[in-house]
Structures are given as C-alpha cells and as structure tokens.
Amino acid sequence: MGSGQDHEIIVVGAGPAGATTATILAQEGHDVLLIDREDFPRDKTCGDAVPAGAIVRLKHLGMADKIQHEEDAGHFYPLNQLRLVSPKGKVLVAPFSENLEGDSYIAPRIYFDAMIKEHAVDSGAKFRRATVKGPIVENGRVVGVNAQFNGHVEPVRAEIVVGADGVTSTITRALRPDENKHIDHHRAVALRAYIEDLEEYPHEVEFYLYDDILPGYAWIFPLGNNKANIGLGMRLDHFRDTKSNLNKLLQQFLDMPDIKRRLKNGGQLHDVATWQLNFGSQKHLQHTFDGALLVGDAAGFINPLTGGGIHNAIISARLASQTIHNALMQGDTSRENLKVYEKQVDAEMWDSMKRSYFIQRWVLKFPWLVDMLVTHVGENSSLAKTFLSKL
Ligand SMILES: Cc1cc2nc3c(=O)[nH]c(=O)nc-3n(C[C@H](O)[C@H](O)[C@H](O)COP(=O)(O)OP(=O)(O)OC[C@H]3O[C@@H](n4cnc5c(N)ncnc54)[C@H](O)[C@@H]3O)c2cc1C
C-alpha cells in the first residue's frame, strides 16, 4: 500500500458485483474496504432469478456451503423449467438443460446479497456502512472517495476505487463523460412485487410476452408455497412514448383470465417497487479511469432481452479483480493499464449482448413472430435459449 493510503482498494457498493469483487481481491491477500450505504440484509428491487452460471462462479469462490444452507432454509427456491407465453397465448414449456453445471434459483436479494457480502467479510474484506458522496480526484486521477459515516463526511484514500454502486452510481456519474451516458433505447424501467396467493407451477419460471409491453415482458418467479416474485419491465423509450403506468399494467396482468383464476385470495401484493435497468447493448462506454473502474450495473451490464444482470455483475467482478491485482503488482493503476478490462468484458459479454439486442429490437417488435417462434421453433429457438441461459 502506498504512503498516504488508507486501503489498497475501496469497493463502493456491496451488491453482487461489489461483494464478489471484494471477495476475490481479499482472497488474493489485498487490503479491501467494502462500503455500502445500507446495512445487510437489505432488499434490492429485482426478479431474484439467479442462473446456474452465476451459482457455479460463486461456488468456485467457496460459497457452496452457504448456498446449500440458504436452500435448506427455504430461502433459495430451485428451478427446473421455463414457460414462455406468447401474445396469442401460445405456451412453450422448456426444461432446463441436464448439462447445466449447477442449480438455478429464485433467490430473494435480501438473502442472496447478504450471503455474498458475508462471504466477502469472511474472506478478509473490511465492511463499513457509509454513503459515498463521490470520488476524490487529484490531477485527473481518482485517489479515494468522500464518504459520509454517521452524518459526517470523511475522505478515504486508496490506490484504486471500484464503482459497484448500481444503476444510479455516484462514481459513474462523476467520472463518465456526458456524451458517454446510457440513452433511453438501452434502458428500461421495471416494477417488482411479491405475491402471497398465486397458485404456482412448481419450480417453473414464467415469462409473458404481450402487445402492451413488448419488447418487455411480465414475469412470475415462484418462491414455493404459492408465493412468487411478480413484475414487468418495459424499454424506457417505449414506456415514455406510450405514457405507461407500471402499477396499472401489473393490475391488468393480474386481471388476465389465466392469471386471475390462479389467485387464491384476489392477489395479495406487498413490497411493490420500481427501479431502472441499464443494458450492456450500448457500445463504447468507458468503464476504466485513472485509478478507478466500474463493475455490474454501475457499468451497465444488464442483458437487453431478459433484464438479467446478476451473472454479468459476477463476470465483471472476476475480470475487474484480475485487472486490479495485476495493476497493483505492476504499481500502475492508470487508465492505460486498466483498459485491458474493457477488452475482456467485450470479449466475454458482447456476442450475447448483440444477439439479445437483435432479438429484442427486431423479433419482439412483431408480436406475430413471437407467436410463430413459440409455436413452431419451440425450445430450440434462440428466444427460448436466451431466456433459459440468461433468465
Ligand atoms: C425490477 C428488476 C428486476 C430484475 N430482475 C433480475 C433477475 O431476475 N435476475 C437478474 O439476474 N437480474 C435482474 N435484474 C438486474 C439486477 O438487479 C442487477 O443487474 C444487479 O442487482 C446488479 O448488481 P450490482 O451489484 O451491480 O448492483 P446493485 O445490486 O444495485 O448493488 C449496488 C449497491 O450499491 C449500494 N450503493 C448505491 N449507491 C451508493 C452510495 N452512494 N454509497 C454507498 N453505497 C451505495 C446500494 O445500496 C447497493 O447495495 C433486475 C433489475 C430490476 C430493476
């Protein structure tokens, strides 16, 4: 650690991206301060669907026992198939591939995020609750953050700062140039609620694609005992153009005959909340700076078709950690040296972002095509495969 530094690394935000970054770097022996404005456990507005690929990565970091514990406690609900319902009501049911290396879950974020954050601390990262007001920038490079602890703001200095503070990231807003921000075409808004009385299809995630919200969708993600995470999301430009109201749309969704007949007590909703999503389909965004880089939603790595961002947050955490470890060993945390991270992120995610963006823009624009794909192409269609692999 350089003189005048409080820590080697500060990670701002302890969601999946930040807590995974802190875990990997702490396991490599680095001095990591993980900061979040919330105490854990805390909720995060999400569909809570965690694909097998993300679970496998967390197991590789030593979380197998914690994951099993959450499943045994009934907090993580395992999944084994997907149901896609087209605008004309055609139904495709596709089982998850036997080849998947692990389980997929509906894992409410109140449990999932607390588990990863606890693992970061068990791995040696220090956690402090504070609201980061912004990066400290000296001579064009980030040298720490100003953070508010118990009502007073303190500077905390480090060799490198990781912005993992989600879609409204203070770090991203301060560092990314204005012309490099997400535009409405590559953003979405979504509403999530929990429902207590919906007859479930056990272990099955349900996606409803229909005219009012295409190229978005509504979902029902089961939690067992007739409880579910339920919600819907729309691309932001479409949402603005149609002056939509997500609460009304959810009510209309619950009023659809096939859903209504499954409600046991009229539809008991709680924890209704809306939040934003920034897609990874917008090219040429800057993720590295002198002394800082961005991971997860702070960078904008959500899949533009499925709205899934947890797996990509964890992938970006791994790539960022490797880059940071190498940069610290070389004693060079300049943007020039960190830029390799942008190339690696592209190499790992871009093909899938491009394919998902294509389906979202062109296929879902034509509801009849969705009907056709669901009816005739079935579980081998790239639509079904993308939903299956990216949730
Ligand atoms: C309605 C909805 C449904 C979704 N459904 C799914 C799904 O089913 N599956 C899926 O994979 N993805 C889903 N996503 C996307 C997923 O939620 C995100 O991609 C994921 O949370 C990204 O993780 P993250 O760690 O980058 O950010 P976050 O999970 O947002 O974590 C950021 C953390 O930073 C902290 N923070 C923020 N600002 C500050 C600050 N100034 N100072 C200190 N701390 C700060 C926050 O408290 C938070 O803990 C959904 C998103 C929405 C909105």
How would the blueprint of this fold be written?
Blueprint: E1 7-12, H1 16-27, E2 32-36, E3 49-50, H2 52-72, E4 77-79, E5 81-85, E6 91-95, E7 104-106, H3 109-122, E8 126-129, E9 131-138, E10 141-149, E11 152-163, H4 170-175, E12 187-195, E13 204-208, E14 217-224, E15 227-235, H5 236-241, H6 246-255, H7 257-260, E16 269-278, E17 288-289, E18 292-294, H8 296-299, H9 310-330, H10 335-338, H11 340-363, H12 367-377, H13 382-390
Parallel strand pairs: 1-2, 1-11, 2-8, 5-13, 11-18
Antiparallel strand pairs: 3-7, 4-7, 5-6, 9-10, 10-11, 12-15, 12-16, 13-14, 14-15, 17-18
Residues 12-18, 35-38, 44-49, 131-132, 164-166, 170, 190, 192, 231, 275, 277, 296-298, 302, 307-311, 313, 391 line the site of flavin-adenine dinucleotide.
Question: Would you mind describing this structure in some detail?
Answer:
The protein is of the alpha/beta class and 391 residues long. The chain has two domains: 7-79 and 102-182 and 280-359, FAD/NAD(P)-binding domain; 185-278 and 362-390, D-Amino Acid Oxidase, subunit A, domain 2 (D-Amino Acid Oxidase, Chain A, domain 2, 2-Layer Sandwich). Helix content is 37%, strand content 28%. The protein has 13 helices and 18 strands. Strands 1, 2, 8, 9, 10, 11, 17 and 18 form an eight-stranded mixed sheet that branches. Strands 6-5-13-14-15-12-16 form a seven-stranded mixed sheet, sandwiched between helices. Helix 1 runs parallel beside helix 3 (109-122) and helix 1 runs parallel beside helix 9 (310-330). The chain starts with 6 loop residues before the first strand and ends with a helix. The model has no long low-confidence stretch (mean pLDDT 93). It binds flavin-adenine dinucleotide. Residues 12-18, 35-38, 44-49, 131-132, 164-166, 170, 190, 192, 231, 275, 277, 296-298, 302, 307-311, 313, 391 line the site of flavin-adenine dinucleotide (FAD). The site of flavin-adenine dinucleotide (FAD) has 39 residues, from helix 1, strand 2, strand 9, strand 12 and strand 16.
